Amino acid sequence: MLATGSKDTTVMIWIVDPDNCSLTHLKTLEGHSYGVAYLSWSPDSSHLAACGPDDCPELWVWQVETGQLRTKLSHASEDSLTSCAWHPDGRRFVAGGCRGQFYLCDLEGNVLESWEGVRVQALAWKTDGKTVLAADTHHRIRGYNFDDLTDCNILQEDHPIMSFTVNSTGRLALLNVATQGVHLWDLQDRILVRKYQGLTQGFYTIHSCFGGLGQEFIASGSEDNKVFVWHIRRELPLATLTGHSRTVNCVHWNPRFPHLLASASDDGTVRLWGPSQECRDSANAASTQATTNNAAAAGSTVTNHSSDSPKSTPSNSGHSTYTGASNGS
């Protein structure tokens, strides 16, 4: 499945057809009263969480199968909850924002623990289930342990970290850094491994991702309306995908179908990308799996469900409005 959100407050769930690179609308989730700035699937894709822009003090969690609103987290009216991340057990999540709120919550919306004064730009759990990684307004990613309330510095950039994601092993992190582009960090050795070239990254929030077969590839949107694909070990792009007419603010590979890549743009569309039919036929004949370095063209385009298309926003104004299902079901 694939989820999209919009500034018109609606959240939609789509069925993905990997063979035809097409989407079919499944349902619309009701109840969100702010523009949708960030979406996050639970590890088993049974729940979907939605955050709003900077002025949004609430977070919504739906049970996807029934479409029912499970939880509306609203701790204080002055809060800003613009980012969230699920614990690996799927029963808890963290939420935070640029005004200094940082909460650990359960599925009922109860705040189990909080950390004061942490201005959060993006969040992710480490695979150990104990440590939360948080990008803050000091250009850092720090680790926070809610069990013993200890924290430590993981890495430091010289420019604002607009977003970040962690690969499936938990060792590598991919950062979109303002005016610098996409950086790959080794979280264990705490070193900058690689800087990827080609994309245009200013102060808009753009989400990149690991993916493809064995997570050997990296993709990112760009402010020049393109999608860039790299091999994880190469700084220069393998492919540049064109078709969007405005900033591409989020990309996501389908984890079940690693040849399938989705992108969302300020032009109000979601596009699916994959190998050309010729590449797929050749791969099937050879009993091998086509990978994204053969990506050719958008197999499908879905127009945004809002007449007011989602915007890429400056540093402290939220996140992209697209995310892929964690299990790609």
Protein architecture, described:
The structure is a single chain. The chain is an all-beta fold and 329 residues long. It has one domain: Methylamine Dehydrogenase, Chain H. Helices cover 3% and strands 47% of the residues. The longest helix is centred in the C-terminal third of the chain and has 9 residues, at 277-285. The N and C termini lie close together (5 Å). InterPro entries: WD40/YVTN_repeat-like_dom_sf, WD40_PAC1, WD40_repeat_dom_sf, WD40_rpt, WD_repeat-ST_regulator. This is WD repeat-containing protein 26.
Number of domain modules:
1
- Mean pLDDT across every amino acid position: 84
CATH topology value: Methylamine Dehydrogenase, Chain H
Strand count, sense and closure of the main sheet? 4 strands, antiparallel
Protein structure class: mainly beta
Strand order of the largest sheet: 3-2-1-28
Can you identify the CATH superfamily? YVTN repeat-like/Quinoprotein amine dehydrogenase
First-to-last CA distance: 5 Å
Any idea what the CATH architecture is?
7 Propeller
Low-confidence stretches: 285-300, 304-329
Q: Quick gist of this model?
A:
The chain contains 1 helix and 28 strands.
List the helices and strands and how they pair.
Blueprint: E1 2-5, E2 11-17, E3 22-29, E4 38-41, E5 47-51, E6 58-63, E7 68-74, E8 83-86, E9 92-96, E10 102-106, E11 111-114, E12 120-125, E13 131-136, E14 140-145, E15 150-156, E16 161-166, E17 172-177, E18 181-186, E19 191-196, E20 209-211, E21 217-221, E22 227-231, E23 239-241, E24 248-253, E25 261-265, E26 269-275, H1 277-285, E27 295-303, E28 322-324
Antiparallel strand pairs: 1-2, 1-28, 2-3, 4-5, 5-6, 6-7, 8-9, 9-10, 10-11, 12-13, 13-14, 14-15, 16-17, 17-18, 18-19, 20-21, 21-22, 22-23, 24-25, 25-26, 26-27
